[in-house]
Amino acid sequence: MLTYIFLIILVVSLANKTTDGNKNIFILGGQSNMSGRGGVVNNIFDGFIPPECQSNSSILRLTKGLTWEEAKEPIHQDIDFYAICGIGPGMSFANFVLKNDPNIGVIGLVPCAVGATNISQWSQGSIFYNQMLNRTRVALQGDGMLRALLWYQGETDTLNDDAKLYKLRLYKFFTDVRNDLNTPSLPIIQVALASKFGPYTEEIRQVQLETQLQNVKTVDANGLKVGPDFVHLSTPSEVQLGQMLANAFLGFGSAHNLL
Ligand SMILES: *[C@@H]1O[C@H](CO)[C@@H](O)[C@H](O)[C@H]1NC(C)=O
Ligand SMILES: *[C@@H]1O[C@H](CO)[C@@H](O)[C@H](O)[C@H]1NC(C)=O
Ligand SMILES: *[C@@H]1O[C@H](CO)[C@@H](O)[C@H](O)[C@H]1NC(C)=O
Ligand SMILES: *[C@@H]1O[C@H](CO)[C@@H](O)[C@H](O)[C@H]1NC(C)=O
């Protein structure tokens, strides 16, 4: 009997966690491909927003000023403000999650990515790290529930032989974020990059593809097309990447409710 009552309570509380009233918080971190340069040509964003990236009243964005607004591309512009931002994977991700999990409630995106940053610039206590954690903590106030960190970084670290230290730095970064946010098994979905530029690309890519931390998934950008600047994912590639990230997130299944 007691077990039965307990199960009912468990089911009801799990159900409550996934219905309206909750804000599902996703952190977006890394460098330019996460920030978004799709549709940026000669430092001008062409303004084209594909259907997969349209705004939706259920998709919010935490602004630089720490207020919520309906998210609208380019969602990183006030965060990655030195660059001209375009389409990234965030809106495609959010729309795809919403479409496939209509009961999830509101999606709250916390853009934090900054172009050209190396992994050391994200280490615990750094400006970007602190900003990311601060923004996330604000996002979690009230009805916020942290669901995942989406991470796309590494290109800058392919440029020098510091790449040897990438594994150590990446693992420490993921672990620090989880610890500092009190979510030790926070789902993390990272992107394995497929750059042709840095001499140490294979080393970085290897680390990403072979990351062995619990609840870390890696989707592979290999095969995704870059745009006319040859450096950044095109708009269609960013749309596709967003859906890959969403599928990886949805693949965590109900386990992510138990955080
Ligand atoms: C918002 O997304 C939901 C789920 O995909 C969809 O049913 C709804 O039509 C969308 N609203 C707008 C204004 O696009
Ligand atoms: C990372 O970037 C910072 C700022 O540009 C620089 O000072 C540092 O040397 C870089 N570290 C590595 C390992 O490249
Ligand atoms: C981060 O949050 C702390 C505590 O709320 C605050 O003192 C600090 O100024 C914030 N830092 C930034 C960069 O917003
Ligand atoms: C963006 O991603 C593509 C595909 O992984 C990669 O070729 C390119 O080097 C990346 N660019 C940056 C600046 O990270």
From TrEMBL:
The UniProt record lists the keyword Oxidoreductase: no
Alphabetical UniProt keywords: Hydrolase, Signal
SUPFAM superfamilies according to UniProt: SGNH hydrolase
Coiled-coil stretches: none
Domain Sialate O-acetylesterase: 23-250
Keyword Hydrolase: yes
InterPro entries: Carb_Esterase_6, SASA, SGNH_hydro_sf
Pfam families membership: SASA
GO molecular function, one term: hydrolase activity
This protein's name: Sialate O-acetylesterase domain-containing protein
Provenance organism: Solanum verrucosum
